[in-house]
Amino acid sequence: MYDIDILHLIEGAKEAQGLTVIIDVFRAFSLECYLYDMDVEQIRPVGTIEEAFSLKHHIQNSVLIGERHGKKYDGFDYGNSPSSISKKDVTGKTIIHTTSAGTQGIVNAVHASEIITGSLVNAKAVAEYIISRQPQVVSLVCMGNGGVRLAPEDELCAEYIKSILEGREFLDMERKINRLKSNGGEHFFDKSSQSVFPEADFYMCVKLNRFPFVITVDKDETGFVASKKAVVKRLDKSGGKRHEK
User: Fold this and answer.
1) DSSP string for 131-149
2) What are the CA-CA distances from residue 40 to residues 24, 70, 162 (Å)?
3) Strand partners, 227
4) Nearest to 145 by CA among 102, 196, 207, 206
5) What is the mean pLDDT of each run of 10 residues along the chain (245 residues)?
6) pTM
7) C-alpha span between 2 and 151 (Å, rounded)
8) In this structure, how many other beta carbons lie within 10 angstroms of the beta carbon of residue 83?
9) Which residues contact 106 (CB under 8 A, 6 or more apart)?
């Protein structure tokens, strides 16, 4: 039914065609799901620090969130850590978001016919959305670390989404997620780096299918805008559970 390509890093984003899912599990697009769960007004992903500051100047009631090399950039309100953000500071606000990997995928996916974001916290919703759209070509882009090095968590997310699209069982998901603690997410458990990568972020980012919505990316006169869109759950004969084994 689909021509599904799993692509990698910034170069993969540049090659992506069709309905394109930009995947960043740790932490950009997990964070954006949590931000919409905190009732933000909208999210504006941008590629550069300069553009982020410029939008902050022009958009009232906005909050700067983002990182470079994992760390909150000087002058930003928050870094890329979902566990560190206070709901009272973002509810009803426009979020300006820039990261080293995730948002770089968005700005580089110039050949995509449609862009959505993906992470483990809404992976099944992403698959359901793709099924509802019936595209001929699907590109699953694993953004990795800094957009230049492969990340196991993004690869796992892409394979999981692909299995749902192809109607295949995806076995041992719990074990595979747990393995990320020592292969991909180990920095969340290193006490010397937890000021930047809190342990709580790991657990928030691996809550499989926590959210029943996708984040679609469009462009207007101001730039990119990432919007929450609810997805109607599609149940299979086993009640929709077979892909989570």
Assistant:
1) HHH--SEEEEEE-TBTTTB
2) 20, 22, 30
3) 216
4) 102
5) 93 98 98 98 98 97 97 98 98 98 98 98 98 97 97 98 97 98 98 97 98 98 97 55 38
6) 0.94
7) 25
8) 16
9) 13, 22, 45, 47, 115, 117, 217, 224, 226
